[in-house]
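Bench log, entry 3. Co-assembly request; chain sequences pasted below exactly as received.
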Amino acid sequence: MFQSAELGHKLSKEEFAKQEPALREKLLDVQYELLEKAPFSVVIVIGGVEGGGKSETVNRLFEWLDPRHLQMHALHEPTSEEAEQPSMYRFWRRLPPRGKIGLFLGSWYSGPILDRAYGRTKDVDLDTAMNETMHFERMLTNERVLVIKFWFHLTKKAQKKRLEELEDDPRTKWRVTDLDWERFEMYSKFRKISERALRDTSTGFAPWYIVEASDPQYRYATVGNIIHDAIRKRLDAPAQNTADLTPPLVKPIDGKGILDALDLTPALPKEEYEDQLLKQQGALNFLFRKPALRKRSVIAVFEGVDAAGKGGAIRRVTGALDARSYDVIPIAAPTDEEKARPYLWRFWRHLPRRGKMAIFDRSWYGRVLVERVEKFCDEDDWMRAYGEINDFEESLAKSGAIIVKFWLQIGKDVQLQRFEERASTTFKRFKIGPEDWRNRDKWDAYQSAANEMIDRTSTEVAPWTLIEANDKYYARIKVLKTIVSTIEDSL
Amino acid sequence: MFQSAELGHKLSKEEFAKQEPALREKLLDVQYELLEKAPFSVVIVIGGVEGGGKSETVNRLFEWLDPRHLQMHALHEPTSEEAEQPSMYRFWRRLPPRGKIGLFLGSWYSGPILDRAYGRTKDVDLDTAMNETMHFERMLTNERVLVIKFWFHLTKKAQKKRLEELEDDPRTKWRVTDLDWERFEMYSKFRKISERALRDTSTGFAPWYIVEASDPQYRYATVGNIIHDAIRKRLDAPAQNTADLTPPLVKPIDGKGILDALDLTPALPKEEYEDQLLKQQGALNFLFRKPALRKRSVIAVFEGVDAAGKGGAIRRVTGALDARSYDVIPIAAPTDEEKARPYLWRFWRHLPRRGKMAIFDRSWYGRVLVERVEKFCDEDDWMRAYGEINDFEESLAKSGAIIVKFWLQIGKDVQLQRFEERASTTFKRFKIGPEDWRNRDKWDAYQSAANEMIDRTSTEVAPWTLIEANDKYYARIKVLKTIVSTIEDSL
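Structure output for the full assembly:
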């Protein structure tokens, strides 16, 4: 992959000086057009060998572009808050909104490549990490983020020369550290590993641009032009209709889904309920005081038919816990900051810290439920969401989160009865509105979306638990029992 | 202050059981009304002695209220990100949006009281801290946050009994630590210090409610009722017109302000400019590589007349720096998340970490400039903002931030000339719009607001530097020189 970046590419200072004003003007032009129209955001990744002039190039970009609408993220050690979350957390929280450009020096490639080079992982781990990365970048691309990736390359000889030059100049001497020389000694290893990583992740939607880095003028001009061309091309692209390419989802010929097969009759008498409630709440409380839980987090997702009793079930869970150990996150319409970013961004903001439980009252599954049924997003958006959500939950699980997901199901008749009851009880009057009645009219569409969701996102790390909720007592106990046993099995 | 909380207040279990359903219903009622109308947010502070049942009470509130619209913040050690910021940062970042309730267990009182009790500070430091706290709470109140503060009190005898009870019960034994007994030994000291702190901060807008904590039923019912009454009263309060109470601002009789007295003619020839530019940029770059700067941060504020050259000056500053060490934050209209919180919230989000510079292109001064002139806020809102901004900058300075503030001034004729030039240059066309022409019509109002702002917010820790900007070269060099000398003086 690196051969064509070892040809000794050069651009004379004179030639560069001649090209620079026009390059700058057209870069500003795309930057402002991007800002005004805000159809997408831009993420620029700059990786490559030490001494390859990465930060000089970034500085140059900041001179060319309007620095007010560029964000620079140089990532070193994670902060204590970041260290508790999945490795991608630090990138998610820094994603630029639409219209803006984010520059990442030190990216999601740095960790896996360094780990492999220092022998902390094996090839297969690198491949897995690169596979995740590819999923991540594909999701970004689909979510209207333009991903531009540069890899600055130097031959071993050129790297040595460059480090020596920096060391010889008293103004730049401080920049060369022992670590740089240590890494230089590992040149061939890094070259091999990087090549493997780059090959795996040079995709059609986010290809690598390998830049020969020894000549600064060549490097600046190449990077500047690629950034311009990539943004220009995307700005000028006609609106996509990728939905046409999406294969149709097929319903089972007999029309039967998982939810139809569910027997909603199980019930608990009040006395047994009260008995069980105390017992299960006690067990949950006990689990949260175990030292082992301080290193984990718990994520509970509640989805279900309107009036199925999500709120009541949630209150029976929180009732078992110290208020300091949980957060309930009700998911309503996204804010404008959330709308300007990939749809999963708003959930990354609410991940629990270690030792805590986050309870999502509705969740990222809105994408394949309400957004699908109400057509708030395109068909291909929710079609790809199944895979994106599975990836998301896998990365949560990997970082130590224990995940439980509930679908609360009631019969259509029971829903009607509860709606009417809510409308006539004072302190429940806030729980029912015209929207609930509208959703009820689309009962079948919602059920079929839910069937499909359960099918496609019940995974080993995060299976769905279906809750037969015609009887509230039965439902609440099943929720509690499931949480307790899932945590027990995970510790 | 504590006498009336040592009377042995009690509520029998039967009486409590009788009152609870009605209390719960009215609490839910105000919570939902708050949520629907969202006229303000609620911050509840719970402080007091160990063993006073603080967390049990919080748990009870979570049972009574809808936990989906309550946020609980139990604050212990600051995270590494928080430790780099002013002490109030951790509270700012957790402020609930309008319509929601935030519960703080461990608040802005905990640190100062503990510091004093352990002899790390003196009475005068406690008084200063309480004075700041009072400013903070007054600002919150004015910014439509209802602040409710509870202090749970126990006599020494009652505290001992309570700790012993907890220790004797195997289910709660784990909750009593050596630290609790250590603090118990310091009972009289804590009592004296808390009394001093509470007396200082029991204000009309945010009084303390001291609750005798030995009887749980009495405690729960008292807290529940106070919360209900406070929210109810504020919900029912007629719209305030405090602007009527604001004394008028008076212009100097001769109509002359600081800006009128400014001589805008200083200029630099191009050659000298280029020479000075290199020199000053070099000096700034050098300062950012000093180890002493790694423990400080730099905050630069750029305000000024439209087309005065803020962007150009900012680019000459950033041109001196490594892109990793600064962030430019352009301030435009607030997002909806920002609008739902006190106006300074959006700036707390962008404070620089240590070793970094944050450059604000327009800033919190918008409150007393555009918001004042365009009447986006009431007269009393911008009147009080001067003091709030001074408090804000003082707390930044205290935490180690170096602050420079620039007002760029040009003549009205020069502005016209630049507007016309911008309109006719391709890659500057984005820099001029109808709004700029509208603002120009209000030239005098903006100038008079700026005069007043400079007068009232030029403080010892954060003075304004006026930049004579008719000549761009002169202006840029003065900006750079000021930054360099301010940092030099501070290190």
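The first strand of chain A starts at residue 41 and ends at 48. Chain A has a mean pLDDT of 91.
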